[in-house]
Amino acid sequence: MKVKALTLALLLATTVGYAQQQTANRYQQYLPIIEKGTLVQKDSLAKELLAEIKGYKTEAEYSTTINILRSLDKEEEMTTVENIAKKKYPKGAITRDAFITDVFYNAGTSQEKEKAYNDLIKKWPVKNFSEEPLTYDYVLASLARSFAHDGNAPKAVYYLSEMKERFWRGNGYIPVGQALLQAGDTTTATPLLKTAMDDGYYYLTLPEEQKDNKARFAAMGYASAMSSYINILVAQKKYAEALTDIENTLKAAPEQADGLAMVYYKSLMGTGRKLEAYNILTKLYAKGQFVVEDDLKRLYTELNGSAAGYEQFNASLKTELTQNIRNHIKEMATFKPAPDFELLNLKGEKVSLASLKGKVVILDFWATWCQPCVRSFPGMKAAQESYANDQEVQFLFINTWERDKNYKENVVSFISKNNYPFEVLYDDQKDPQTGKVMAAKYDVNGIPAKFIIDKEGNIRYFLTGSTPNVDYIKLEMKELIEAAKKPYKG
Q1: Which residue from 422, 431, 435, 449 is spatially nearest to 340, judged by alpha carbons?
Q2: How confident is the model over 191-242, as pLDDT tens digits?
Q3: Cis omega before residue 448 (within 30°)?
Q4: Boundary (domain end) residue, out of 234, 257, 289
Q5: Are residues 23 and 144 in the same domain?
Q6: Strand 449-453 relative to strand 360-366, pairing
Q7: pLDDT in tens, 345-404
Q8: pTM of the complete model beyond 0.90
Q9: Whole-angstrom Cα distance, residue 441 to residue 429?
Q10: Residues 6 or more apart from 162 whose CB is under 8 A from it?
Q11: Which domain holds residue 161?
């Protein structure tokens, strides 16, 4: 949670006030050492920062130094500065944030979280931190989700209503709405999802000159809220209303077409616009969403009067998809030696890249808090299973950037709960020369990040981002792996 909060804070630094602007500028000053510095340079910078804290006159100076030390992986030094700041500013933001991390987020039940929240606003009232309501919105969203999963809709809705930042509240409303839907409470879920959808649409359709980082962040959640809300309308057979919302969106933001394709198809079918629905299905299938195949074949037969020619048509779509993937992976191609590593797996056994020479190795960098990583895992599982009998291929899932002290237990629980047959390695061993973990050695700047390494130990492909589309991931991985098996031609 601390990682996510920090990431968003830095993302929004240019829009949330002068003090944070100064923080961002000072952080930027040391970015070359943070990202590319040697261990000696990082040690020197850490000592320099520790030496200067005696002269600090504001809490903001401590906060900046803590963030820099965190990015340098100087946990001990960071804790030292935190402890000094907490003693000096017992009612300040640093002490408050430590309480949120150590007490609120570690609370087990909803009632324990609620007590921690009440203690939080009593000791650190929102009015004392008027320039940073987002910190409290994180807590409120977490508390609301907890009550939603308990089936306590009134409490969940109450805490959502306390959120202040419109641009971010969809991150609270959408998970709660979806949890309530799963519990069968459509009545409570519908207005929450409608609010999240309307918020997203508002930011999505702002004039370009008004689209700051907040607006772009808010727009990212639009398709998810829209899909959930439109599915409710479709289930209620309110197809015309659903189509109005969808088509207004597609006019204003055509880039949302992929995210809305399935609900658009259902709405078109509900209003009898079958040819348009068929065209939507064709595009989905051609992009690897083979889950629609039964609907596609049924609609093809209905529109053509018979299934004659369907198999040939189907084959042509798959051929088109394969060619599109091949063209796409050319953009990911590279060729450079893969940094060696030796990390521990979930059983405590050492696994090294050197020991896998002669195999194509797929590295997937991920974290338990990274939703795009998690969304791609069903597809990665399907891809790995398709190579289960191929002794020349090895998938490794590199767990990185975890901050919780009990991260190993969290990882084991996550993998076990989801029944993933993955070989997971912990990226927590720092290189003695550079002080870097493996993700840094591979120049990973964001996750999920995947590397395809050939049998000679060279990185042949690098890709970032993810899709929840299982069939597409499976096909993409096949093309990448089979290409990496072939000799490099330059």
Answers
A1: 431
A2: 999 999 999 889 888 888 888 888 888 887 787 788 888 889 988 999 999 9
A3: yes
A4: 234
A5: yes
A6: antiparallel
A7: 999 999 999 999 999 999 999 999 888 899 899 999 999 999 999 999 999 999 998 867
A8: no
A9: 11
A10: 140
A11: 2-234
